[in-house]
Design a protein that fits this description.
The chain has about 280 residues and is α+β, with helices and mostly antiparallel strands. The chain has helices at about 1-45, 45-60, 135-145, 270-285; strands at about 65-70, 80-85, 90-100, 110-125, 170, 180-190, 200-215, 220-230, 235-250, 250-260.
Amino acid sequence: MAGEDAKRKAGGRRTWSVSHLLGALVWRLALVLLILYGLAQLGIRTEWFRRRVERELSRVAGTDVSVGHVRGTESLNLKIRDVISVTDEGGFDLRVVRIRWRLFRPRGASLLESVRVDGWEATFTADGRGPLSSSVLARMAEGMLVPAGVGLPGRPVRPAGQGLIAGGATDSGGSLGDIPRLEMRWGTVQVRDAGGQALVSVSGLDVLWTAVRRPDGGRVSHLDLRAEEVQVANGPRIAGLHVELIEAGSRQFLGALEADDWGGAARPRSPEEDYRDLFDAMDAP
């Protein structure tokens, strides 16, 4: 009996020792992770990291960009305040930029998961040649206005529906890159001529861009634009504008085009009407 009691006590001591060792390892690992997390939060707040963010954003924008403050969220995503760029052609001011990134990303996927901008202003030159010229924004403005038969002042107006097939496919006018999700809220945009006169003013602009990779390496993207008001110089004042564009490969399809008030501009045909005409033509003998 004494021998059995001794064996039980020895076994209990071994079990306690293993449990104690595992507990000590867990606590040490947790302490190391906590220290690393704290160092990462401190590193994000350093001047070195802020300048690195500035260099990366300048590379993406194609122009010098300054950044006010960079902070890390609880999950180590980035919260950037006051992203500003000013050039002779115009400039932009992004008040708060939130960047979510993937710790473990699928093969071939972007490291970025999403970018969200809360509050922004932008001014572009319609006739410039630099990064803040019409090379990007004029195409976006024309994407909103051309389907309604309204063009930028001083530019030829393409008739509404010209070149549109199957609900509005046109040659693609560029892309927003490989960001899976880009959301820009509460925006104000102006397009000006070389003399500084406003050609188009947009207020209350919300932009939502989502993109999905296809298995063959291509991409299908969706762009949703909503504006409280669009004022064209010497033209209509459009209220409650909503435009949806779907891009597949090198083609774009108009998914929605509607407004609460077209401000005297002719109401364009809806994508549903284009689809109906297409089906009627297919059924015709």
